[in-house]
Each structure stands twice: as structure tokens, then as C-alpha cells.
Specification:
By secondary structure, the protein is mainly α. The chain contains 6 helices and no strands. The protein is globular, with a radius of gyration of 17 Å. The two termini are 27 Å apart. The relative contact order is 0.13.
């Protein structure tokens, strides 16, 4: 009964966010395997030879896999902690995109990430989503 009631209270957009976080976890796992040298880097990435097998990058992408899996699980359960974490990560990525544009990156380099994170932030701030997570004041 509890699973059924949670499914009814979960907005469709939250389900889509959970699925997108799962896709991000899979992509992070692929990157981790690439930097361990277990999976070839063939999808249009310009990676220097010295960073092809890098434990540091593999460790960071492995950490992202763990965080995204945690986020998927919490979003699926409509946990208020997931809402706060998603807001924090989205704002953090927006700030990184802005600093990247101030540095050497161009708008074309960060436009997809910036627009996606801006739309996610707008969506999670909607009253219906905040109400579903129990964060409406």
C-alpha cells in the first residue's frame, strides 16, 4: 500500500528526473571505465595520452556514479533530502558553467549543461514539486 501511495504522489517530472539521474550514473560509470583503461575512448572526446589511464579521474567518476545512484533512489522515494541535494548540485553546476565561460570556455561548450540545469532548477522550484517533496513552506 505504501509503494502504491508513493507512486500516486510522485509527479511525472520527478520520475523523469530520476530516470535522467540514472542515465547520468551510467554515463559516469562509462567514463570511470574509460579512465581505468577498461573501456575505449571513442565517442568524440579529445583526451590527452597522459590522462587516458588516470586513477584520479576514474575515482571522481566512480564517486559521481555513487552520488547519482543515491539520488535516483531518493528521487524515486520522493525524499526531501533528494530535493535539497538536487537543488544544491544544480546550482553548483550552474556556477561552474558561469566560471567556465569566464575562463576559456565558450557558450557553445557549456550551453547544453547550462540550459539543462536551469530548466531542472526551475522545475524543482515549482510549487507542485516542492509540495510533493514536502518542502513547501
Amino acid at each position: 500500500m505504501n509503494e502504491l501511495s508513493q507512486a500516486k504522489e510522485r509527479p511525472l517530472g520527478v520520475t523523469i528526473l530520476a530516470i535522467l539521474a540514472g542515465v547520468a550514473a551510467v554515463l559516469s560509470a562509462i567514463h570511470a571505465l574509460q579512465f581505468l583503461g577498461l573501456f575505449p575512448i571513442v565517442i568524440g572526446q579529445n583526451v590527452a595520452v597522459r590522462t587516458y589511464i588516470s586513477f584520479w579521474y576514474a575515482l571522481m567518476y566512480g564517486l559521481l556514479v555513487w552520488l547519482y545512484i543515491w539520488l535516483v533512489r531518493m528521487l524515486w522515494r520522493v525524499d526531501p533530502a533528494a530535493w535539497m541535494f538536487l537543488v544544491f548540485i544544480t546550482v553548483f553546476e550552474l556556477i561552474l558553467d558561469i566560471f567556465s565561460m569566464i575562463g576559456s570556455a565558450t557558450w557553445q561548450d557549456v550551453s547544453v549543461s547550462f540550459i539543462f540545469n536551469a530548466l531542472v532548477l526551475i522545475y524543482v522550484m515549482l510549487p507542485g514539486v516542492r509540495e510533493a517533496f514536502g518542502t513547501q513552506s
